[in-house]
Amino acid sequence: MDRGLKNLRHAVLAIISLCVVAGCGDEYCDESGSGIPLVGIYTMENPPVAASLDSLTVYGKDQKTDSMLYDTVSNVHTFYTPLDIDKDEVKYILRYEKKDIAKEYKWDTLTYTYKRELKFDTPECGAFYEFTIEKFEYTTHSIVYAELISEVVNNLTSETVKLYYAPEN
């Protein structure tokens, strides 16, 4: 009888442990990010300072579906630039809609060249794509400098790219 009670106790502990682990998995999924590169805006000061852009439009170039991400949005501190799971490269146009910007400084382009890999997380969270950015290019019409912070983009939210602009007078 003692052995049967011991087995029952082990079974109950195993069930409780599974419930606790399953509960933790759901919380992790809720905290996971988007798996999309997050771009931060900074001014080129010493040290750099987080900033914002007014009247920014962002859209994809040569994409098969509607690629308008932001349409003349004000006070933009960060924005996302999704990667396409069916391609190895995506381009985004940043158009600056402010009237006081000269025509030659009205737009910039961000280009990501990457590899993608489907990964399995947990039964609760499922699968996700992890992207490895092999090449990051940008134009310098209004952008002074851009920095690729992380080559790996997965479901954990973090800033992937920092864009630096000249400080306004």
If you had to describe this structure to a student in words, what would you say it looks like?
- This protein has 169 residues and is an alpha+beta fold.
- The chain contains one helix and eleven strands, in the order αβββββββββββ.
- It has one helix at 2-31, and strands spanning 38-43, 49-50, 56-61, 68-73, 78-80, 89-96, 107-122, 126-138, 143-148, 152-153, 159-165.
- The strands form two sheets. It has a six-stranded antiparallel sheet, with no helix packed on it. Strands 1, 2, 5, 9 and 11 form a five-stranded mixed sheet that branches.
- The model is unreliable at 10-14 and 16-27 (pLDDT under 50).
Number of strands: 11
How far the N terminus sits from the C terminus, by CA atoms, comes to 84 Å
Strand count, sense and barrel status of the largest sheet are: 6 strands, antiparallel
Write down the overall geometry.
globular
Helix % is: 10-25%
Percent range for β-strand residues: 35-45%
Mean pLDDT: 80
> Over all CA atoms, what is the radius of gyration?
23 Å
How many alpha or pi helices?
Answer: 1
Order of helices and strands: HEEEEEEEEEEE
Strand order of the largest sheet: 4-3-6-7-8-10
What key phrases describe this protein's structure?
single chain, 169 residues, alpha+beta, 5-stranded mixed beta sheet, globular
Compact overview of the structure:
This protein is of the alpha+beta class. Helix content is 18%, strand content 44%. It has one helix spanning 2-31, and strands spanning 38-43, 49-50, 56-61, 68-73, 78-80, 89-96, 107-122, 126-138, 143-148, 152-153, 159-165.
